Amino acid sequence: MAEELTFDIPVGAGVGTRANADGEPVTPKDAATVILLRDGAEGVEVFLQHRVKGMPFAGGMTVFPGGGVDSRDVDTSVSWAGPEPAWWAERFGCDESLARALVCAAVRETFEESGVLLASTGDTVVTDTTPYHDAREKLVSRELSLAAFLEANGLTLRADLLRPWANWVTPPQEPRRYDTCFFVAVLPEGQQADGATSEAVSSGWQRPEEAIADAKEGRRMLMPPTWITLAELGEFDSSAAAQAAEREISKIMPTLVRDGDKVRVILDPA
Question: Where in this chain does the record put each Nudix hydrolase domain (predicted)?
Answer without folding.
Answer: 28-236
